TrEMBL record:
Binds 1 heme b group per subunit, that coordinates a highly solvent-exposed Fe(III) atom. This is Peroxynitrite isomerase. It catalyses: peroxynitrite = nitrate. It holds the Pfam family THAP4_heme-bd. Pathway: Nitrogen metabolism. Residues 9-160 form the THAP4-like heme-binding domain.
Length: 169
């Protein structure tokens, strides 16, 4: 199947499109520090938004996969004036709306809305920073949860391992 043309509104965030893989580190006052692997896929269908999916897994000291960790999916919408809206959904019962700005190959986002189901863990906000550095996607996530103030939680460095190919279905 042919990849549709990228919608012109998405040009400021076109550098994200593709399949990214790499590793990162995490920690928080309520958990032990850990290493994780990650795959992020940014795709599009020609409409004015990017599709987004991320999956992570715990890595042991040798860098081998131990078990799955988090999953999130969503949509990234570029708005006029370098503004950006991101909607993310998590299988743990949390939905987030981020707002922010893209400047060249740097994106800074903060939560505007957080919604939780009755069974979701307490989570009140986040701050995400993404940047393209020497061709790699670097990102960091600060979190406010479990009675803790906003603080560093996870960060990773990902390499582009493939181009986005739309589903044949």
């Amino acid at each position: 199947m042919d990849v549709p043309e990228l919608h012109p509104d998405l040009e400021p965030i076109a550098f994200l499109v593709g399949v990214w893989e790499g590793a990162g580190v995490g920690g928080y006052p309520t958990i032990e520090s850990f290493n994780f692997g990650q795959e992020i896929v940014f795709g599009h269908n020609g409409k004015p938004f990017l599709t987004y999916s991320s999956r992570t897994w715990l890595l042991d000291e040798a860098g081998e996969k131990v078990r799955p960790l988090g999953v999130e999916t969503g949509f990234w919408r570029q708005l006029p004036g370098r503004q950006l809206e991101v909607c993310l959904s998590h299988p743990t019962g949390i939905v987030e709306v981020y707002v922010g700005e893209v400047v060249f190959h740097k994106i800074e986002l903060h939560t505007d809305v957080v919604a939780r189901t009755a069974t979701a863990k307490e989570y009140t906000g986040g701050h995400r920073l993404y940047g393209l550095v020497n061709g790699n996607l670097m990102w960091a996530y600060d979190m406010a949860a479990m009675g803790q103030p906003l603080q560093s939680h996870i960060s990773a460095e990902l390499k582009r391992v493939g181009d986005f190919a739309p589903d044949a279905g």
